[in-house]
Amino acid sequence: MSKRFTILIEDDWEVMGNGLGNVAQLQYLPSMFFMKLARRLGIKLTFMVDVVQQLEFKKYIHTDYNLKLQKNLWDDSVLLMKSYGFDVQLHLHPQWLNATLKDDFFFLNSNWNFGRYSDADQDQLIGESVNYLHELIRPIDPEYKVVAYKGGSWGLQPSGTLLKNMEKHGIRLVTGVRRGMYLPGNGVDYRTLEEPTMPYYPVYDDLCKVSSEKKGIFIIPLQTVTPGVKGLGYLAVDLVKRKVSKSDSMRHYYNGNVPEKIYELSPIAEESKPKFPYVSYKTHLKIGNQPFSYLKTSFDQVIKQLADTEHKRIPILIECHTKQYNNYYGDIERFLAYVQEKYGDVADFGTLSGFLKEADADAGMVKLKTA
Question: Which domains, from first to last, does the chain contain?
Answer without folding.
Answer: 5-365 (3.20.20.370)
